Amino acid sequence: MKILVIGGGGREHAIAWRLSLEGHQIFCAPGNPGTAQIATNLDTADYLTIEADLTVVGPEAPLVAGVVDQFRARGRAIFGPTKEAAQLEGSKIYSKEFMRSVGIPTARFVRVENDGLAALDQFDYPIVIKADGLAAGKGVVIAHNRGEAEAAVISLGPRLVIEEFLEGEEVSFIVMSDGRNIVPLEATQDHKAVGDGDTGPNTGGMGAYCDGRILRHEDIGQILDVVIEPAVRATGFTGFLYAGIMMTSAGPKVLEFNVRLGDPEAQVLMHRLDDDFAGTLMRAATGELTAGNLRWKKEPSVCVVLAAAGYPGRVRSGDLITGADAGTAQVFHAGTRMEAHGLETSGGRVLGVTASGNDLRSAMANAYAGVDKIHFEGMHYRRDIGKKGLKRWYN
To answer: For domain 108-164, which CATH number applies: 3.40.50.12280, 3.30.1490.20, 3.40.47.10, 3.40.50.1980?
Structure first.
């Protein structure tokens, strides 16, 4: 097939890479230096000129803006949610009120339009404060005291969700849906905080691992029953539906909905997938998805994100990158650009170094061996991606 992938980050590089392995002709808009090695990069303004058999949307912004409605109006096969359904990610207020109305388990919350400081009195600490709109994964603050909470309300406001802090272990649970039928992907675990041990501010994701043991079979069934199926039924959702789940002592509760593949979750998922991805996408885009499970490689995969100086705050660009092609790990480009003197940084999350292994420990070792080959000034990364799984299964 001729397949168009919209987006230019690590997630889109991983999607294009996986589809290219199946022998399809790939176009990326706008793509990046990594996708340029396996696909034809296009100016975003030109993507409608490509008569692709199938279009796959990576980022949330074009989905919230209605790109799927635009393509469908032209009779084009595209995989993603409509503008209306994309509000599950586009507005935290909409999403939380949707969950309450449908009966999907989530944290107790209040919506704030203006006076967030007064709403703080309704919660004990720590509390979670979320900006209403799209924030690239960085619009969430966990406040441990009143001072931190007031600072977060001022910086993130005026439209906010303030909610109780949930105890448990976080899991990323993503499915493909054609509006009726659902195919779950393997569970993954993202690492959102910038520092080891989940310290520091939240980011768009500093790494992830994918291992078939993250969730028990009964946990998967419960999440499908009480979270995914009610959401799909209520919205007719098409595309990748991502539920950030906290596995609490009272069962799974939804932290957030996203309406696309996570990043870096996409990188480990594409690395482990062992099935007809393009065919599954096409069946889902045309309403012919068959409910069931995809095939996955047994070996776990680990992705370590290499971030630029200053991330997740003010990011420095223009640092020369060396060694991106030197190791055996698969390197997915996110914030890079090619200049006359070579590859350089151009965003906060620069590269995703992804590798597999016979077990989680060896997958981690292989990913970090790949990291050791790469250098750019200001490069920083977490050194504990996957350690939660090690503690769970090896201690």
So the answer is: 3.30.1490.20
| CA atoms within a 13 Å half-sphere pointing along the CA-CB vector of 59 | 20
By the 8 A CB rule, do 10 and 334 touch? yes
Q: What is the architecture of the domain spanning 169-285?
A: 2-Layer Sandwich (3.30)
Query: For 259-292, what is each residue's pLDDT tens digit?
Result: 999 999 999 999 999 999 999 999 999 999 999 9
What are 332-349's pLDDT values in tens digits?
999 999 999 999 999 999
Q: Is the pLDDT of residue 395 over 70?
A: no
| Letter string b/e over residues 266-300, b meaning 16 or more CB atoms within 10 A of that residue's CB | bbbbbbbbeeebbebbbbbbeeebeeeebebeebb
How many beta carbons lie within 10 A of that of residue 220, not counting itself? 18
How far is it, in rounded angstroms, from Cα 177 to Cα 170? 22
